[in-house]
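Deliverable D4.2, example record:
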Amino acid sequence: MNLLECLRSAVPAVAIAHLQAQEDIRSEEGKVRRALVTALLSGRPHQELAEAARVTVAPAYEVLRIRFTTALPTARRTVRLVQAALDAHTGTPVLTALDHTGGVALLPGGLDPLNGHPHLVDTPDGEPPAPA
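Output generated by the structure prediction step:
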């Protein structure tokens, strides 16, 4: 077996192992962050979770409830896009607990969660909210 043949078999194996390790890390970080969101929402102790997630907990949060109506195949992409948009909106990584149906986001207190987008709000009768 020459060097090129060795590389042809080794490089894909290393790349797959690297991708799997990255996915495992993201999955574990996501679990810790979701546990932190749950602890904050329920008023349970959160300091250890915040340290594990490497997150500084804000003094207060606005809770934003999110509901997705996208089909399941595109849900993962939708979750990533929403997370990126929230992070860009606040200028900091936003704590979220999102899945394919929606979830919650904790926006650091004092931010306008809609920032001029009242059409994003669902009302019980399905009509847009009245202007403030």
